[in-house]
Each structure stands twice: as C-alpha cells, then as structure tokens.
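Researcher: I'm comparing several assemblies side by side, and this is the next one on my list. It has 1287 residues spread over two chains. Same procedure as the others: predict the full complex and return the structure.
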Amino acid sequence: MNDNKLKDVQEHAHGDSLIKITSKPSGAADHPVSRRSNVNLEVLRERLEKSKGPLYWKSLEELAETPEFKAFVEDEFPERTPDWLDPVNRRTLLKVMASSMALAGLAACTKQPKELIVPYVRQPEDFVPGNPIFYATAMPSPGGAVGLLVESHLGRPTKVEGNPDHPGSLGSTDIWAQASVLDLWDPDRSQVVMRYGDISSWGTFDGALAAAKEESSEDGGAGIAILSRPVVSLTLAAQVEAVKKALPNVSFHQWDPAGRHNVNEGTRLAFGAYANPVYDLTKADVIVSLDSDFLVSGGGHVRYAREYADARRVRTNITAEPASKADRQEGFQTGPAAPFRNQASEHVEHDDSPSPKNVVQAKAEGKPLEETTQNRLYVIEPAYSPTGASADHHFRVRASEVEGFARDLAAAVGVPGISGTGSPHHAIAAIAADLKAHRGKCVVIVGEFQPPVVHALGYAINEALGNRNETISFTQPLEAFPVDEVQSIRDLTASMNAGKVKTLLILGGNPVYDAPADLNFGEALKKVKTRIHLTAYNNETSIVCQWQLPEAHFLETWGDTRAYDGTVTVQQPLIAPLYGGKTAIEILAALAGNAGKSAHDLVKEYWTARLGENNFEKTWQIALHDGIIEGRLAPINVSVKPPAAAPSAVGQGREIIFRPDASVLDGSFANNGWLQELPKPTTKLTWDNVVWMCPSDAQQLGVQNEDLVAVNFQGRSVEGPVWIAPGHAANSISVQLGYGRTAGGRIASGIGYNAYKLRTSDALYHGTGVEIRKIGKRYPLADTQLQHSMEERAPIRVATIEEYKKDPYYVGSREGAEASSTSLYPDYKYEGYKWGMSIDLNVCIGCNACNIACQAENNISVVGKEETAKGRQMQWIRIDRYYAGNNLDDPELLFQPVTCMMCEDAPCELVCPVAATVHSGDGLNQMVYNRCVGTRYCSNNCPYKVRRFNFLLYADWYTKSLEGLRNPDVTVRSRGVMEKCSYCVQRISSAKILSERENRRIRDGEIIPACAQACPTKAIVFGDINDPNSEVAKLKRQVRNYGLLEDLNTRPRTTYLGRLRNPNPDLEGQKG
Amino acid sequence: MQIFHRSANSISRVSIVAGVLLAGAIVALAYTLDRGSYTTDVNVVKAQPVPFSHKHHVLDDGIDCRYCHTSVETSASAGIPATEICMSCHSQIWTNAEILEPVRESFRSGKSLEWTRVHDLPDFVYFNHSIHLNKGIGCSTCHGPVDQMPLMYKQNTLYMDWCINCHRQPEKYIRPRSEVFNMAYEPPRDQLALGKKLVAEYHVQKLTDCATCHR
C-alpha cells in the first residue's frame, strides 16, 4: 500500500468517525441526555377524571401515550442502539460477516480443555460433593435479625434462605438477606489492613493499639473514643463492658443514620425508660400505620408481613365455575403407563375416557363465603411505601402533619389529656370508630422515622384501646446500651473538636458520609490524632483514617444477635474470612487486653459464662444447629404516660422528607449490584435516587420527570433529578439517602446524589422550608416500568370483600375466556407430575424478595444502568406496579409479580427455529441454552414479556471471587442466549431424583422455588396440579383464580388469585 | 460465437466431480475428526500424578468401587477419593514405593493431588450418578471395563447422542440393581425381556426432556 492510499484510507476512516460522532446516540455515558418526552399533567388529570370504571395505568408515560410508551408496547427493544464501540463501516462489517461465517462451524470443534480434579486431603465429615449443606445463622440488623439457613456447596456459601424455626424469619427472608451473599463475594471489599495507604498487618495494628492504650492508661483511656453502630450483639456488649472496666474513661458512642432511635426515644418519652415494642398482628383486625412501612422494613418486618398476610388470606369453599372449566382444570387422570399411581387417582373415580362427567370435580376448601373476613389496614404516610400500597385505605399526609393526625386520632379514641389539633383529617372519625369497635383487636403502628412524640402518642392510643399485651407488648430494648444516638454523635463531634479525642476507633459504619451535615463530622475527625476504621469497604470515612481494617462479613465470622422479639441466634460462619477480616468483637477484645482471641473463642466464652459450663457443649451444638440459643425477651410492664399536650409546631412551606433508600438503605448496601438493579417497589427506578413529588407539585414547579432541580434546605443545596410519584403528599418532596457516594466500591461511587448533605440533626427525617429550583438540565433515569409492557386491560383483578360476597366470580376468570380455548389438537396428557404456580395478589406486598432470591438462585446477571434503560435487565421476575383510579395525584397502587407463565400452549415454542424452547413431559416450558442461537423470536412472541436476552456478555466470567458465589446447579449464561424463569428446574430435578431414589412420589411442598421460599407472605405457591390435594391445586380451585391474558388461549400454568380489599364502609371512595 | 475453448467441457466435468469429491472429503474429514479420539479422547490415557491402576485395585485386589468413590450412591458426583482414603491402605503397604511419593507428599503437606479429569462432561450438562445406579445402570455401562484398565481412559464419547440412546431405550442397558457394581456383568441373551421387566419394576422413565440434563 503506497502512502497516498494510506492517506486515503485514514481520511476515509476519519470521515466515518466524524459521522459516527455526530450520529452517536445521545444516551451514552459521557453525555447523559434525557430523551423522555414531557407529559402535560393538566391534560392527564382531566383525562383521568373523565374516565369511568377501574382504570389501571403503569406510568404517566402510559397515561399520556407518549411516543416512548407506544414504542415499548409495539417493540420490546425500541432502541436499536449499536453496541459496537468501534465505528463500523461497510468494509469492517463485511470482514466481520465473512469471518463469522467462516468461524461459525469451527467454534463447535474445539477440543475440551484439560480440567483438573482436586480432591480433599482429609475430607470433612458430611461434605459430599454435589450435595449442599445448610447451616443456621442470622443476619444482624438494627431492628432485629432475620434467622437464616445458608446453603453451602463444599464450603462456598451461595444462597441464603430463611430459618423456619426462627421467629424473625419463619422461613422467609427480605431483600437484604438475599443480597448479603453477593456482599460476601464482592471483589471491592476492603481486603487488607492499611496504614497511611500502605499495606500493613494485624500484628502491627495490635502493636499500635496497645501503644495507644498504654499512652492513655494513666487517665483511664480518656483520650480514646469508640464509635459503633448500636450494639445488639451480646458478646460485643460484653467486650464494651470489658473495655470500660479496663479503661473506665473511654467514651463510647453509637450512631445509626437511619436506625431505630426514634422508636427508642419514643418509648423513653412514653414510659420513662427504653423498651422495645413487639407487635402481634395475628390478633389485629384493624391496623393503623402512621407512616410505618412495617411489612417491608424497620425490623421484624419479615415476621410482621407473614402475620399480616395470614390474617388477610381468604379461602372460600366456592368452586371455580363453570363446570366445563373445572374439567379443563387440568383433569387429574393418570395413564396406565404412569410410573407411579397418582395418589390423586386412588380416591378419584376415574376411567381413561376424557369425558367430563367422569372427572370428579374436587371441592374448593375454605370458609363459607358469608364467613369470609379480612383484616383492615389504614396507612397514613407522606409517600407510597409497599405497606401503603397494601392498605385498604391510604391517606397521604405530609410527614410533619402525621403528629397532628396522631393527636387527633388520640383525642378521638379518648386518650386522656390529649386534645386534637382542632381541624382533624376527614378520616379520623371513621378510623377512630373502627378502632374503638375492635378494642384489644387493633393496633396502631408508628413508623421509625416519625419523631418520638408520635411514638408516644401511638403507645397511648394502643393503651387506651386495651391493646397492650394483646396486639402490642414491650420487652427490654434490643440494644445493649440504648442511647439518644443524635446526642451521642453530637457529643463525640464536640469532644473531637475540643481536641479531647486522641484515638478514635470507628467500628463499621460510615460517619463521614452519613453523620448529620450540621455536625461537620469529617472536619472534626481530622483533629483526632489516631483514626482507626474497621470497615467492609474503603469508604468516605476510611479514606480520612490512618488505619483501615477489613471487617469480616457476617457470613464469615462468629457473633450473636437478637431478633425483633429478643430471640438470640449465634451467628455461625460459613467460610473462613476471605480477606482475613476481623469483627468489632475482636477489636474491642484487643483493646480490653485480650488481643489474639478469635471471635469464636470470645462468643463461646461469653455463652459459657451466661449458660453455665454444665452440659454446655451439648446446648451449644443444639443452638448452632437450630439457630436459636435463647428465646424471646419476656414482656415487661410499662406505665404509659401520654406525651405533652402541646403539639409540635408545623413549619410552613414545602416539606422535605429524608428516607433510607428502598434498596441500598442508608448506603450500606450501595456496592451491591443486585440491590442497585432491583427496581424500587413503588417507583420501579434502578441505579439512582431521585426527588419524589406529586404531580400537582411538579406542575406548580414546572418540572418533569428527569429534570434536574437544586434542592435548597437550611442553606445547603444538592442537585437531583425529579421523579413524579403519584400518591405523594402535596407540598412535600422526598429524597432518598444512600446515594451520591464518592468512595466505597466501583458500584457504589458516582451514582445518584448525596441527600445526607441536606440532613441536619434537627431535621433528621423531615423538615419544612425546602426550596426547589429547576436548573434547566436533565438527567436520564433507568425505570423499568415502561419496559416489558403487556397489552392487557385488566391485569389485576380487585374487588372489595362485599362485592366478592355478592358475586364471588367477579374477580376470577371472566366468562367466555375459557370458551375460546379450543384447539384442533388433543390435549397432552400429563401422566406423572404437572407443575403449576399460584400467586395470591391479595397478600403480595411488592417487597421484591422473590425477585432477588431468583437472581441469587439462578445466577442472573446484573446489566448496569444504561442497559437497564434500554429494557435489557435480566431479572426473571418482574413486579409490575399499577396505579389505579382516576385521581392523578392520589391513585391506588397495586403490585403483580410476573414470572414465566409456563403456558400450556406457549407462543414462544412455536416460533423458535432451533427448538431451543420446548415443553417437557411435566409441563415446563424449558429453555435450552446450548441450543439457543439468539433469534429472539420467542421473546417477540411472548405476550407476557418474561423472556430475557443476553445482548452482551453480562455474566462476569472473569472476576475470581464471583465464581464462588454461583449456584453450581445452574448454567452461567453467555452472550446471545435467551433465558427466563424455569420454575427453578434444578430444585425440581433434585427433588425428583431424591424421591425416585426413595421410591415414592414427590411430596406436596417438597419443591419450593426460590421466589416462593423467600416470599415473606407466602403469596407464591408451587406444586403438582395433577394432585388435587396439593396446596397449589386447591388454590387454583379457588374462585378468585384467573390467568393473565387468558383470552389469548395460552393457558398459563402460573395463575393469580384476585385481590380483595376490605374498605371501611364509612370511608369508601375517600382519599386524600 | 464461441467464448470457451472446447477443452472447457472436460475441465468443467472434472471440476464438478472433483468438487463433489472434495465436499465429501471435507465432510468425511470433519466426521472423522469429530468422532475420532483426537476430539473425543476415547481410549486416550491421560497423564496423572500417580499412575493409578484400576485393574490392580479392582481386579487383583477386589476393592469395591464405593470404597473410593464414596458418594456415588447419594450424590450427583461419584466423588474422587481424598488422599486419606489412599493412605488408609498405603500407610501399611507399599509404604516406601517411589511411585506413591506424591500421595505421601500430599498427606504430609495437606496439599491436594491434582488429577486430570478423564470423564469430562461439558459444564451445561448436569449428570447425577446416584439416580443412574438406583435405576440399574451399572458402572461399566458407561465407564467400560474399568477393571481391565491399567491406566484410566474413556470408553465412550459421552456425546449427547450416546446418552440419549439409553434415555430412549433404557431396556437395552438396564441390569438388576444387585449387579450395578459388578464389573464382570454380562447381559443375558434375553436382555430386552429382562430390560423391559426391570424398567417397569424400577419405574424407569424415558427422560428425554431437555431439562433432565440441561438447566
């Protein structure tokens, strides 16, 4: 090639790249530009108000029928952004095509690489390769631990399940427990002891600690301060006591940025001493939540969700009509060649002809219709929480006005010494009447982010209604040293500023990032000579500390922790610390003079002392096996005194509400990709925090979704994108904590804005007088609700319980839907098992636990924000959120989990050119990854939009530590492969193999898919619908059973039970 | 007008025949490569840290398969013996044999022996030993006459067509459960009759669903 030609080519390429740049999609990372259309809220409001009947809408975009929404309905992936990073011209395209043609066949001809087998030298007892072992432990959490059974494959913890024997779990988990296993294997964790940015060692640190101790031993450790998260662990508390004994003048401080200190302070205000409220919702017919998201967060929530759901589940003895449908209700015939006689067939009259009259119609089990009851939930809150979405009555009240509401409610139920605000909310009378009608069988729950006075009011209301020791009881506090945490960190900052602190030991947490902004903790910290941070991640605080000590994850070290009711679990490690991390227990023991003792020894020592040496080893082994070492705390007697009569002043102006994020909480889970990509329950946003406001506020401010606004509060300012959240209180905005990190891992840092910058110690959770200013820029957000849109008119069926009693068939299958399900082909006879799933929308609380459990079980990849925005997220379950009603500002909110429907007549199977998705003999719609060539026809033809395609190599094949995380029973998918919910076929297989070995049928409930296992309310039930006595078959006979899009004749195996509401007749139709 | 010379006729005939032959040759070559030992590793002995002889241990010493492959009846994986299992005998016999030094070294140092896998299924195939034994599929059905192998090699391709052959017609290969570990088992003349009887007795299902092995 001569020079001229070379020059030509270069110019040509240059010219191409210019075009490339000008035509570059504007959504690229370096130039984030929002492409969301503006929505005319006024027009929407009018349109909604004019419409009649139940109207479901997923988003403002859908309601406005914006081009983006239409594009998503018409085309699953409207954005055909080229994925090549290099500019592609005709020449390179031809080259790529030619080489891929040439290599297409050859790729299959590779020789298998050499693989090693590395057996044990001494195989541990019970370790069987291929069979997982489960160990009982617990995940510490400020409001009460969730007891866990953790699955271990040859010493690798891969999946977390709830411990059915643990009162805080009852076999279920929450999203944080499910995601904790990813935190363990996170490659970004703090991995070595660092001193001034250099690698050091524990030995050097122990020396330094001893020196610091020596230095201040004369004045009893007066120069040493310790900052910890609230201490719930008993062994840790013992170490704190030991330190105080050795160095009496050490100052000990506790701080949790979004913990339970308001609950604690509330009890102190009400009883004069700290206590821990424990609710019993099984006995509560009426529940009033004052800004409490008790179903999904705040401690004890996994337990409370189950109790709530059990009181809400409805089963009636009405069979699903019409008769012809019952026949189709998958006749439980077994063929002569069936390997086992179906238990069902043994007591069902039956011959082989499919004539309907021979199929005995099994009766639905349950209460008579007229006896059907449900609990009733009122939620008063400023911004929709999942609990609010579950409510029978949801009232949006500004956070600062909840106190007034509580006062009016207290006055109305007759709490002595409390007078109302004078202008009570219109619902007060009805709620109070309902409460008074259910004395001793109702409960008022106050949210942990409401000020102490509201808690005290709540306790007074419960007392007045005779609920104490019925639906609410009190125990000693869970914390070993309950304290006013705001005062505690304020004191610490003051003594740091005064130069009194020579050595500060920060045990976990991230105070530089999350301490109240007015304290200027970061500046004060710099005045401390020796700063030590025990930390899981090198975060904002560790950066300014000389010593960074890697903290052991709870799955790799010993400890103990209390559940919501005080039950103690010994936290048992599943694996030795991956990076030699230590715990606060060990650090404090070292400070107390017990350096070198392991956490195991310290925990065991503590419990030997507590339980006595007599027969201890046996007790210990049983405790480790069961996951409980000490039962719940005994209820204590309290005397409730109502709070001061004078209500707190409510400031004028717009209110700002600070709340931990629904996924990453206060920021401690910010480096967890599963949680970042988990659509937040009510907004369905991922990867960001936003400024929520209701449509009327947005209109007033002239802002749209994704508009960047400056939020000014008390002279501090941050910039964040707006998200219009129907159902938010008016004249109020919400910001979420936990984002805007500058350190703390590759995922955590650099996303969202930091709302802590606005948060001061006098307005921790809300304050008034915030100013919002549009700054004229936009910021693209990745919300998932536009994506995977179905065209269904009534995806969710809802009725009130009265309507249901009048016409039980109202919520179930619509008439005529089944009539269309005729086929030219004979039905396939399922002779063995026939798997099916039932999802009860009545008890689904939208908590996302199923979603993340599925992700953990099935090795589902994280794709990142940009890919999520393109509709390419991989989660196999999505939880659709619908707004209902014709009030734009205050709609109802409904959830619907959508998995693969395992259609009997699956549209996806018909269009696959390579038979990569086919039906199995037990009715599963199987996805065969190694056959898939990535045409995506199946996904295109799926009316439920539940198939997920690996557009790129999403699975991380190269990070070593993530290999330990993976479930060995599920293939890790590669690029170009379709995937979808499999009903956890690996669990079906292993149960099947076990049952075959034992020569029996699989028992009902023996197979629990990951989603159903995690579900706190047990809304998801899986089983064999060939067996009429199985739980799932019984549920499918319920009259509320219906299939999604069933008029398409896909005959879905996953069906739903319609939702029932139990509104107060006095309040029906009232919102506000 | 004549564009091509007359000889073009011959050239074209020859090239058509040659083309067909060439295509055939390529197909034959590809097939031979795919089915041959080069790709399948059938009958190929692999280098191992210790030249372990199944022949000696099974045939000469009469040690049962399960003495070493302990989890074969209870797990997906048959289990490769821990060094400890080797040493349970070899701490008493052949204690000074040069050839066993790697085993003793492993036991001393606590560092595992690293064997090269002989029967290597692709990662997207999920095979379970326990259920096959339980349904009357003998070790030698898949692994061949292990007791005749001084050094371990693969008897079968473990290709999917080979697997599915039995999944479709288990009666051809099934044997009584009592004979599963019998290396010298000879199928009876009326294998099909026995097979059909056993298939019914053991509730053997013709599992040809994809998800049986792929998930």
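Model: For your comparison table: Residues 7-35 of chain B form the longest helix (29 residues).
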